[in-house]
Write a structure and sequence with these properties.
Blueprint (H helix, E strand, L loop, with lengths): L4 H16 L8 H18 L6 E6 L10 E6 L10 E7 L5 E8 L2 H7 L1 H16 L20 H9 L2 E6 L6 H22 L4 H8 L6 E2 L4 H12 L19 E2 L5 E2 L2 E2 H10 L24 E4 L20 E4 L1 H9 L2 H21 L6 H7 L5
Antiparallel strand pairs: 1-2, 2-3, 3-4, 4-5, 6-9, 7-8, 10-11
Length: 376
């Protein structure tokens, strides 16, 4: 009969943690077992390559934790629970059970968005990933409850992606525990494929693009839809009149290419400033948008953001560089003949050159024509 080494270790923590928590933390037998013996057992029973995976058990650092944990790190992704993605056994603070969770570190979100908004962004990232990973229905646990309001417990709850819960009264044998673990390990490896050699920070930035109302050039339909949506709610004073801004942080897409992000709110401000009229000819007909309630127009970067390398210190994604065009003119300026496009470009250049100067985009008409590939 197979010895249930993993089950026995997990039950040992559940049965003894609350009692041992009343004792001294230093040199505690339970703490030593979790930190030293348990990783050895897990490596052996789960058949994990030590060169590939790091296993860390913790009952606290200097003092007893509210939520003890056992984390499994793919070394190519992370070796710490504060950042990146990992698998983790999380014990409820009342020791009524534990979770096996595919989880993520909170540090990136806190540093990028602040403590409060960072928690919401971590949840958003988890939701996006949940929809990209196909797993057995038994792992479709969308939230976890560690029975604690402490920051660490809340961080784990917000970072949870998918997982499974085990009640202390019905912990399965090692065969089932190992089977569950490796199924979730496969999902962990699918996240690694999605990351595709990017850093965790680069991946998170890409993952939350649309959550942050930003879009890449190959997301044109989604971008224009978001611009239209914001056109109906953006504030009257949203057209920013401050001077030049530094170039944005580039996005590394799923194929490893660097792309410049476009903020839908910036474009919506440009459309509002133009009073939702085509800047080629305000008499051009359009229709009332169901989404915004205003005449439908589209946003067009006069100096395309794909030219960001020619403007190393300037943000091209500015309202002043975005013109409001009817849908027909927008297609025409991209796909029309050079003769037709040239007249449009000359008209727009004379109209917006002053506002381009305001944000540091300084260039001649000949340079603009070359950027559009027009040769007279």
């Amino acid at each position: 009969m197979r010895e249930n080494k993993i089950k026995n270790m997990l039950e040992y923590i559940l049965n003894n943690f609350l009692v041992e928590k009343q004792s001294n933390f230093k040199n505690n037998e339970l703490g030593n077992k979790v930190r030293r013996e348990l990783p050895i057992v897990m490596h052996e029973q789960l058949n994990l390559d030590r060169k590939h995976y790091d296993i860390t058990g913790s009952v606290g650092k200097g003092n007893w934790a509210t939520v003890p944990w056992i984390s499994f790190f793919d070394r190519e992704i992370t070796t710490t629970a504060t950042q990146g993605y990992y698998l983790v056994y999380l014990f409820k603070s009342d020791m009524s059970g534990f979770y096996l969770s595919l989880n993520q570190g909170y540090t990136y979100y806190k540093e990028q968005y602040g403590a409060k908004l960072g928690r919401e962004k971590a949840k958003a990232a988890a939701s996006i990933l949940r929809n990209q990973i196909n797993v057995s229905p038994k792992f479709n646990l969308r939230s976890i409850d560690l029975a604690s309001k402490k920051d660490l417990a809340t961080g784990y709850e917000n970072g949870h992606i998918i997982g499974i819960y085990y009640d202390f009264r019905s912990i399965p044998d090692d065969f089932r525990l190992i089977e569950d673990f490796h199924e979730l390990l496969d999902a962990y490896q699918r996240i690694k494929l999605l990351i595709n050699r990017r850093s965790v920070d680069e991946f998170n930035r890409y993952l939350l693009l649309q959550e942050d109302d930003e879009y890449l050039e190959n997301q044109e339909i989604e971008y224009q839809q978001a611009v239209d949506k914001y056109s109906g709610i953006i504030k009257e004073d949203s057209f920013a009149h401050e001077g030049p801004r530094s170039r944005k942080e580039l996005i590394i897409d799923e194929s490893g290419r660097k792309k410049y992000p476009r903020d839908a709110r910036e474009a919506a401000a440009a459309l509002k400033e133009a009073n939702y009229q085509c800047e080629i000819d305000p008499e051009h007909s359009t229709f009332i948008s169901k989404s915004s309630g205003y005449p439908y127009c589209e946003a067009h970067h006069f100096i395309g953001i794909s030219l960001y390398e020619k403007f190393p210190n300037i943000d091209l994604d500015r309202s002043q560089n975005i013109v409001c065009l009817c849908a027909n003119c927008h297609r025409k300026i991209h796909y029309g003949t050079d003769r037709v496009r040239l007249s449009m470009i000359e008209k727009l250049y004379q109209k917006i050159r002053t506002r381009l100067d305001e944000v540091g985009i300084q260039l001649t008409l000949d340079e603009v024509k070359s950027y559009y590939g027009i040769r007279e």
